[in-house]
Amino acid sequence: MSNFVNELEQTARTMVGAGKGILAIDESSPTIKKRFDTINIESTEENRRAYRDLLITAAGSNAFISGMILYDETLRQSSSDGRPFPKALLDEGIMPGIKVDMGAKELAGHPGEKVTEGLDGLRERLAEYRELGARFAKWRAVITIGEKIPSTACIDANAHALARYAGLCQEAGIVPMIEPEVLMDADNTIEQCYAVTEATLKTVFNALYSQDVALEHTILKVNMVISGKQCPSQASVQEVADMTVRCLLHTVPAALPGIVFLSGGQSPERATAHLNAMNASNSHLPWPLSFSYGRALQEPCLQAWAGQQANVAAAQKALLHREKCNSLACSGQYSEDMEKAV
Ligand code: 5MM
Fold first, then answer.
1. Which of 162, 226, 264, 292 has the most Cβ atoms closer than 10 angstroms to its Cβ?
2. For the chain, what is the mean pLDDT?
3. What is the pLDDT of residues 63-80, one digit of tens each?
4. What are the distances in angstroms from CA 137 to CA 130, 215, 224?
5. Which atom of ligand 1 is nearest to the CA of 71?
6. Which domain holds residue 157?
7. Rounded to whole angstroms, how far apart are CA atoms 167 and 97?
């Protein structure tokens, strides 16, 4: 058992406290370059720092955000006022988190499928991350739906890695956020997404049991059960909410302190509406349902910033608006009318 039991419990509960979610700003260098390309900004170290600075220091975020997931580079950078980013977050009562996986790589013998790497040397990296202020971590596994995939081999390999990662985190006093993401880019139906998500989550929780991971100190970050982007028939908001909740009830143990969703390419408004519908229709779930969006929180903010210092205030306003809408969606109190207020 970890030496940090009380601290892990406190951290996990705080991450999913009432009306609070997680802001994911842990894009790796290739991913942030893709985001910056949309606003014609070069992905230099200083531009990445300046952008993360405005996200981290937006005044008032702490009413809606319990933690932020950072990339290795960001954890070591500082705000324009000189404070290291982890300190800037802790000063506002926001917990610093850290993405610790080394990315999804081709799975040998399984074309089109990936396995996430990064276990080698992880114990040492986690010790350093804790010294730098990280109190929770994230590891993302990628599951692709396609012809005859995902394979059992792909789901098993990713589940095993997630469980090994989670055990190492708890040993180090860091709450593991486990993120098995079933991608939503294909032409699959919502029923196919349900089947793959259910199979993935069953395998992941079996692996966590096998590795003696404490569920009480683990947060699940997961995709919604949703139609693939290319599917001609798109499920309604209520169908997504109902099928997602049903899938989670069939697979996720009640011992988990909370579940947060990734947005996965949904529009910001749609991601909020889905979370809201889940919470509006279900008042007695075993765990809080909250958010850990990247794109669905950042997109309007990134577009408003456009790389210009003069736009920082407008960008932070756009960020706070999305944070507030999603905070309200955690208790089913969001309505589309709120989008007109901006
Ligand atoms: C699925 O991506 C995570 C959630 O973001 P969205 O809400 O936009 O789907 C996100 O935390 C992701 O893991 C990070 O951006 C890191 O991604 P890469 O691909 O750079 O490892």
1. 292
2. 98
3. 999 999 999 999 999 999
4. 10, 15, 21
5. 16
6. 2-340
7. 17
